[in-house]
Each structure stands twice: as structure tokens, then as C-alpha cells.
Sequence to fold (451 residues):
Amino acid sequence: MWLPRSRIGKVVAGAVGVTGVTVGAYVAAEPGVRRELRFWSVIGPCIARYVWVDKMVDDPEERSRRNQALNEAHAKPVVDLFMELGGPYIKLGQYLSVRPEIVGPHYRKELKKLQSEVPGKPFSEVEQVLLSELGDTFSEFASFDETPFGAASIGQVHTGVLRNGQQVAVKVQYPDVKWKFEVDFRCISNAISIAQTLNMIDQREASRFQNRSFFPSKCTVSRRACCVNDISRSLQDTAVKYFNEIRETSMRELDYLQERRNLEALRNTAGVRYAGKICIPDTIPHLCTDKIITMEFLEGPKLEEEVLRRLLAVGVDRGTTSVRSFFSEKAEKLQEVESRAASLAKDSYWAGAFSRAAAMIGPQTLLWIARRVQHARDLAVWTACSAVDAADWLGVASTSHKEWVHDAQLDLSTRRTEAETREFLDVLLDVHGHEVFQCPLYNSDPTLETL
Fold:
């Protein structure tokens, strides 16, 4: 059947219009599609620009320069997208922020914001979860702070006071978080698949090994290229492995009942073993569901802030080169001690004495004696400082004595702070290791009985 050209145009325009309206209505009705479109509207052009540079620019230096420019240009928009969408993007960003072998410094700098700057949801979004999950028991709260105390990828924490006067922390899961996780992980998986296909994870990182003294001097150019390709494939496998682990862990963490059981079990194990050093909050079982955990509120600074404060007290300042300088200085002091010990060991008498002492009482006992000697020295210095202070009060202390007291007290304070910080970090790592390896219980990990 023949149709006039004008009618054909109208039919085509009508078909296009109907298709557009249908697609628009589907997108408007399906929030998962909207999230996917939002994701690809930022990530798609980002991937395309990296691919264009890698495929079209042959000069390695120029390619590196352009990639650095792309890193600077895309790091903030990508992290802003993660902030906007939330969910697993927050968790993935937090993980990538501490993995320099996967992402570059520009991305890590922006991704670090996800460690402490995650915005909370309006109370109206979590209120429906509280009312539907707790029902009439929500009336047990005498007061409930609608401003979130903290926020994360899965939910946020509010504080409240029960009618019996107990202050509690309430961890509330975001509504519809499960299907959002499923949609978002599908997007991330597709992005990783595309990056793998285009060999983007991470040929640039692997190629850096060509410019290092990583290979033997006799290693041929072709052999180096093969090794770089192997490194690139290894990085790709690592990225996929960790993504799968994050996905499985995140989906398990949606079960707050399992997390509550793990918290109670940890309180009965690590809480007893490290009594006096740590406090683990007790839960309020009848105010807990698979989407809500209510526990006693413990006053104290955030863990990250306290760790940073203690590190700063001993000379480690995050965000500057002083961290490296601090440990370089410690390494230099250790080398000095080792060199003095080596020169002392050249004396056959002292070498034999140390060997016999270590053989008789053991190295651990020898270290214990050394610590006791150090404590005795500190006590002697403290006593001398007190004597000089008393002399100063009587007006008979000289300027040189006062200067010595100032330097000695500063040295004692510094070493005491270092010792306290070391003990604090030791306890922190011991408890975390006990939680993961001894129990093993971490967030919503399944217990041994369910494995």
C-alpha cells in the first residue's frame, strides 16, 4: 500500500512520540531505572573519555598527562554521585579510598569524604520504618532525637531516652534499601565488566612497573611487557574479587537481627576478656527487629577522631608528610640503636654476656628487665625534677637546672604519650582481631553454627 510522503512522516513521528511517552512513563514509574540512568549519565562519559585517551594517544607521557587531567576533572563528580545515590556506592567508595593500587590519589582524596561526611536522610523517611517495625512499643520512648547522630550506607543512628530514663542509640535501616542495593550492585558490576573488557583495571597502574627497578637488568623488553600484562590481569581479578566480597557482605548486613546476635555474643566474649579496657553496648531485645537495633548509648568520641588525636599527640598529622617523617625519624633512631648495639657486640666480653643472659633467662625476660630499668630511670628523673622544683621554690635553683627540668619533663611526657598511644592501638587491634578471627563475628557475618 502506497502512502503519501507527508502521511509517512506523520506515522513515524507518531510512533516515535508514543515510544518516547511509553519509555518516559516506564522510567517515571520504575525508580530502579532512574537510579541506573543517573549512574550511567555520570559514569558513561567518564569511561568514554578514559577509553578515548588510552586508545587514541600513543605517546606514554602525553597519555599520562591527559589521564591525570581526567582524574582531576572526574574525581569530584564521581564522588558527588556516590553521595547522592548512597547505598553500596558509599561502601564501595569507602573501600576504594584506602586502596591506592586500584585508584589514583585524586580519587582517593575525594573518596575519603565518604569516611565521615555521609549525609543522613530526613527523619520522615525513617519514621515509617520505626512505626511499622516497633508498632506500639515505640511509645516506650520518652524522647527521640529526629536529627541523625550518624549515617552510613545502610541506615542511620538516632539517640533517644526511654521512659525508665535510659539513654539509647537506635540504628534504623533505610526503607527500600534492599532493592536499591540490588539495582546499584548491578550497575557497578556492569561498569566493572566494561572496564575489564576495555582493559582499564588497571593497565595504567600495571604499566608503572616498567619504569621501576622491578625487573632484573637482564629481563628483555618483551618479557617485561608480558609481566605487566600479568600484573594488569591480576589487578582485574583482585577488583572483581573484592567487589563480589563487598556485595555479599553488604547484603548480609541488611539482617539486623544477625548483627544484634553477633553484638551480644561479642559482648559476652571480648567484653569479658578485655574488661576494664573496652565497653560494648548492651542491646534492648524487645526494641530490635530485622531493620532496627536499639542499644545503650555510650558517651565518648568517635573512634577515628580519637585515633587521629592520639597520633597527632605523638607527631603524626594526617594529610601532611609528617606521617612519613615521623616513621622515618623512628627508623633512624632505631638504626642508631642497632649500630650502637652492633659496636657493643664487637666486644667479645659484652657479646658473650648478652648471649649468656639471653640463653639463661630468655629474650622476653631480658626485654622485661630493660623496661623495668627504663621505668626506674624515669622515676629517678621525676624525683630529680621534683627536687629542682623544690629548690626553685626556695629560690636556690640555677637557670641551667630549670632548663634541664624543662627538657626532662618534656621527654617524659612525650614517651608517656607514645606508650599510651601504643597501648591504645594495641588494644584496638587485639579486640578487632579477636572479633574477626577468634569469634568470628563481624557485623552480620553468619555464626559458625549457621555455616
